[in-house]
Amino acid sequence: MTPFSYRCTDCGRTYSRDEVRYLCPECGKSYRPGIPLTGVLEAVFDYDAIGAAFDQARPDWNLFCPVETAFHPPLPVGNTPMARVDRLAAELGLGELWVKNDGLNPSGSLKDRASFLVAAEARRLGIDLIVAASTGNAASALAAVCASAGLKALIFVPEKAPKAKLVQMVLYGATVVPVKGTYDDAFRLSLEYTEKRGGLNRNTAYHPLTIEGKKTAGLEIWAQAGFRVPDAIFVSVGDGVIIGGVHKAFVDLRRAGLIDRLPRLIGVQAESSDAIHRYVETGVYADAANPTTRADSISVTCPSNAHGARRAVQESGGLTLTVTDDEILSAQAALAARTGIFTEPAGATAYAGLVKLQAGAKALPSGARAVILATGNGLKDVEAPLSRISIPPAIEPRLESLPR
Ligand SMILES: *Cc1c(COP(=O)(O)O)cnc(C)c1O
Ligand SMILES: [Zn+2]
Fold first, then answer.
1. Residue 251 and residue 263: Cα distance in Å, rounded?
2. Rounded-to-integer distance, Cα 167 and Cα 142, Å
3. Which of 92, 218, 276, 393 is 20 to 30 A from 246 in CA distance terms?
4. What is the pTM of this model?
5. Ligand with smallest separation from the Cα of 237
6. What residue's CA is closest to ligand 1, atom 1?
């Protein structure tokens, strides 16, 4: 760990580590559930110290970590593999294409990275209960990390979350409260809970260390691409915290003098859950009225980190686009069949965005080096692809029963 303070991403005020917990005390005053968060905090490190100590031969990511290792849960998280997929790259007119397989985290999604760090912070603070609202993956991640750290997890999820995710949470020993309504309703309830009854709130972007946790995916991408900055990184976007976290990784690397440019961040949303896309395109924020997408992990009415996600896209010279559920499920199948990586619909959304981008006027130039972040494991929701495939019927166990 390196010394750090918090800085408000809206007003720029800085605070010492234990002076604040969630939002900027000033800008957070104008926040109320039902609008994107205001006063989201970012960790600002001693970048000279990081730059001086970082060694590519033995990369120590703890230099970029805002919680001491002594408090880290004993469940290894992150360090997921990144596969180079040359065949797909050639087809899409790219120089290099990589798939970062974050579905191989312990609970099967990138959310483990955020839960890990918030659990470490809870241990540092001596708080034994962590509370979260989630579409599913953040909750199963929190439940897994809390199980390993000996902490309690209280989780509010929409009652329609995919079965596998609910099974995970219960099996890991969390207290699971399905909520009648949407993810946004669950979010509101969890805020009320921690305000009135206690515990540490892990809600995405609301707790600043969720962004810092997700940042580690970006740091690893840089290292796994050979300590080179990719030209573009494709990220599926719901609340906009993964894209904000990946951006923060490269911002930190640049502040430390380790890189000299940022990758373009390409945010991909489902057509019915497109609040951030419209915000980036028009500069005017409005909720997604009816997010019905099958990609449950990115189904969000009011994205918590809408402001931060927009900044990440703009500062990096990136863009956003939307894809239909049909494009998402086709992309999921194509990615599985072509690369061996089976990612849940929300994970495949990033690849669907790449396919769509390369077919249009804003295509990345030939020779570009791109990364797809596959954020969650396909086994978390087998119902989604089952709507498009059929399992072949059984045959008699004789060779003649097989077609030739
Ligand atoms: C949470 C999640 C996302 C979206 O991340 P946000 O920070 O909400 O934008 C994408 N894919 C998967 C699998 C997720 O669990
Ligand atoms: Zn502020």
1. 10
2. 13
3. 92
4. 0.97
5. 1
6. 297
